[in-house]
Write the structure tokens for this entry.
Amino acid sequence: MAMLTKPQHPMPEIAKFVAELRAAFGDTIDDAVARGKVGELTFFASENGRTVGTRAMDHYNVWVADETVRDRYYCKGCDGSCVGTPTRCSHRP
């Protein structure tokens, strides 16, 4: 009997990152992704040759997630003011 395996997500790093944002900030993230999918400048991601969301038309509105964001600690009560800065969140459990 063959075992069924779940196919790998086509954008695994983005899926993981969005899941972590959802855990930290709640359903607001799902709203931003959905709005980006229908043309608003709220979400855009690219991985493995695939894209989702709406790309900014200029570099003024571009924000790039790099390793400093990937390793960022999002904690309960964080207001997000540390996002986009090299400062780590000061709210520790």
Q: What stands out?
A: The first strand starts at residue 44 and ends at 47. The two ends are 47 Å apart (CA to CA). Residues 12-70 form one domain. Residues 12-25 form the longest helix (14 residues).
